[in-house]
Amino acid sequence: MAAIPRRHAFFRYYAELNDFLPSARRFVSFAHSFELPASVKDMIESMGVPHTEVDLILLNGEPAAFSHPVQDGDRVSVYPVFKFLDTRPLLQLRTPPQERRFVLDTHLGRLARYLRILGFDALYETDRDDEELSRISHTGERTLLTRDRGLLKRGEVVHGYFVRATELEQQVAEVLRRFDLFPAVAPFRRCLRCNVLLNSVAKETILERLQTKTRQHYDEFRVCPACNRIYWKGSHHEHMRRFIQRILLGEAVCSERPESSPATCSSRLPRR
After folding, report:
1. N or C end of the chain, less CB within 10 A?
2. Protein fold of 8-79
3. pLDDT tens for each residue of 39-87
4. Phi and psi torsions of 58, nearest 5°
């Protein structure tokens, strides 16, 4: 049986997509050998880059879809989402969601909580497996946030993002910057337990549920329509307010460097 001849295509990855590559392949054009034809999506993911991280593919200088087959001698340029460059006139690899909503994997519970604090719709449960997470992301048109590359490579996942940072404050800043969410921050409007929007409630209707000092010192309250939990501007509120200020201050520093990637910029947050 005759051996299948080896073929080669030349790949170049740009900006933060290099985070997924071994050091020898970062920021350079390199040859990738293969025997059997495959789609450009399959080849990209075989190198460790989830398709959800890719926003534009140029094949021999022309925009290409994920399904386009790679041929011997092809030159492939792979780009991430660019905040200051609109790639839609070239070729949309996916339709952007009308509303930015999230679902997070089981390892990002603290990030989910703080996204809710900032007012964003962030689904999170500790017992959801990869199949359920990918299904929720697909059917609910939610962006899947994870630190699991394999999860983002599942074909059902259309919108997803690999969170680079490991420290909570940097994770929050990274996600806000990646999806340009700073203008949409609306803190303290969502239940931290249920993820639903809170309703204002008259103090006199919940007096019997308040402790003595709370009744004496606070007059504004909100209640969760799902779990009936009560919220007010106590000491926890001040702690969260300072957290938000640090995040916003970090973005002010990053906005002076628009070429920065979300992960690189989040590492420049001011220290506490």
Report:
1. N
2. Ubiquitin-like (UB roll) (3.10.20)
3. 999 999 999 999 999 999 999 999 999 999 999 999 999 999 876 555 5
4. -110, 120
